[in-house]
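Researcher: I'd like a structural prediction for the single chain below. Treat it as a standalone chain; there are no partners to consider.
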Amino acid sequence: MDESYAKLAVIKDRLAVASGVLNVANARLVQLTAELIETDLWRGYGIRSVEHYLTLQTGLSPERARQVVEVAAATVELPVTTGKLAAGELSFEQVHAVTRHQGKFCDEEAASFATIATVPQIRRTLSRYTFTTPPGDTPSAAAADEPGGQPGAEDAGAGSATKGLAAEAVAPGRVTQFHDSTRYRLVVDAPADQGALIAAAISEAKDALFQAGQPQVSSFDALVEVCNRSLSGVQPTSRVDKYRVYVHLDTDGAWVGAGPALPPGLVAKLTCAGSVAPVWETDGLPVNVGRSMRIVPDRTRRLVEDRDRGCRYPGCVARSYLEVHHTIHWKDGGPTDTWNLICLCPHHHDAHHRGEFMVTGDADVRDGLRFTDTRGDPITIGRPHPPDDPLPGPPDGHRYEHPIGEPVQHKWVYFSPPGNTA
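Model: Treating it as a single chain, here is the predicted structure.
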């Protein structure tokens, strides 16, 4: 037993050291991103945003790139908190949890609290923390400055509300969808009132399924029921076909159109109750129509969309409202065959026709496309290069200490308003 405890102590110490190095590396990434934002050097050649540039050059996921940009944009308002990231004392996730609520509290106090709290504790505590009108300000003025403000609300000892709080409350919702192996995942980030509306709709559908004789009903079952109700009411027929769910079948298995693979049991169920339409091939090439048609037939479009599963521009994450593009333009003799068709989002489709980049090659072949900028240089996902200077660890005297993990009594947590350290 003593040997196990000794080994655990060594692992814990190495984890602390590795965490510190990782934190410093993330701080470097945040610093470089802040420079990109300040200089606007990320713009050009079809790049949609700083997040897109990071996804393209670093291999970050779109969600992680968005978080890095949020932290980079907060470095001016939260120098102490982000400084602890550079010193290795806070993790990126801890700092990001603080930046989500920047402008509500004193930077020094938030940084101090973050060093002893886990990420869930930071999120729960800071999301509950609000300010009321400071002495000398009228409630009506605060309410006019803060959308959704509540004149007359009181909380002894609290400071003033900030624009950051109101902006967070009215920020537009966001839905993130992605496929992971054979699963589909959905993440919803919504303002409180619209989130309550979504929750109420799911609750009503759950109750309706229960009343219809389904005793074991989950929230997921209810969400599927809401979706079924929406699609069953789609009119006219042309819109129904547009939003139909297609399952692709071949000798190697089955998969959802532009989505993940399906297990055999589910395939058997769908083929038993669904309709099956064959895709004809000529010399092994499915539904190619050559120069006989300029407009891409629906069946060809579905195959191209399933093959590409999103915009083909390097690093672009768009998966909806895609447009099928002839790589060799129709006017230049390009056929309406799958090798000459690619999916592009409207942004990159327009950018291509403005001459911002070129694309050539065979879309049916793995790595068969070549994207180039106006100078003819290839546009590709960035490859790491050996740094000129090795990435350092935390400065001397600084070390990452894991949060204590004790429960946080939210009502006893107090932060001073921004700019007030007294």
